[in-house]
Amino acid sequence: QKEVEQNSGPLSVPEGAIASLNCTYSDRGSQSFFWYRQYSGKSPELIMSIYSNGDKEDGRFTAQLNKASQYVSLLIRDSQPSDSATYLCAVATINYGQNFVFGPGTRLSVLP
Amino acid sequence: SAVISQKPSRDICQRGTSLTIQCQVDSQVTMMFWYRQQPGQSLTLIATANQGSEATYESGFVIDKFPISRPNLTFSTLTVSNMSPEDSSIYLCSVEGASGARRYVSYEQFFGPGTRLTVL
């Protein structure tokens, strides 16, 4: 059974701080890792994907992957109230018709 | 990324009836998926909609309850049959996009807006 774990939160950070979201996964064959943001009542929106060990930066977002530790994280710098949402970690194995396994999500609240 | 639409956006249905949800994409895609998101929960994959063949269902989901059609590369339907209140959920379709000329092709998934179903 492939599992993806996240702290459910809520994680509260003050505006301007760094928010750190963590995700662990059980399947060592996983090769693709994604972070989605989901606002209440909306569908998930892809914000980051990462495939290789190390850091990947996109604007205020940095994804970090450590395959040896089976760990992927998302850092949000200069957090804004508009970043308040649930963040879903998804993990997949690259093959034909790969299926994603989603974590339970972490609810982030950025306080003004 | 592809533009994905779903119809209906929401519906309230009676127990024992069926509802068909449509998913339309503005470009041809190979892989389409159907997910369920129950209140306060994460996403659970129901099935992969294959063009020209039967859908591939995940454990716990069966064709009689969730028949799926995929007549072409831009359209799919999911039917929720013989509904009960436990089927109240958001149903989401997603498509897989391959992008980039990099070492691997990234199989990112993009979601439609979802269908909020309430069963009384």
Summarize the structure.
The complex is a heterodimer of chains A (112) and B (120). Chain A is mainly β. Chain A has strands at residues 4-6, 11-14, 19-25, 32-38, 45-50, 54-58, 61-66, 71-76, 85-92, 100-102, 106-111.
Describe this structure in words.
The complex is a heterodimer of chains A (112) and B (120). With 112 residues, chain A is mainly β. Chain A has strands at residues 4-6, 11-14, 19-25, 32-38, 45-50, 54-58, 61-66, 71-76, 85-92, 100-102, 106-111. Chain A has no helices and eleven strands. In chain A, strands 2, 4, 5, 9, 10 and 11 form a six-stranded mixed beta sheet that branches. In chain A, strands 1-3-8-7-6 form a five-stranded antiparallel beta sheet, with no helix packed on it. Chain A is globular, with a radius of gyration of 13 Å. Chain A starts with a strand and ends with a strand. With 120 residues, chain B is mainly β. Chain B is built from no helices and eleven strands. In chain B, strand 9 (89-99) and strand 10 (106-111) form a beta hairpin. The mean pLDDT of chain B is 90. Classes of the chains: A mainly beta (112), B mainly beta (120). The interface between A and B is medium-sized, with 22 and 25 residues.
Characteristic key phrases:
A: 112 residues, mainly beta, 6-stranded mixed beta sheet, 0% helix, 54% strand, B: 120 residues, 7-stranded mixed beta sheet, 4-stranded antiparallel beta sheet, globular
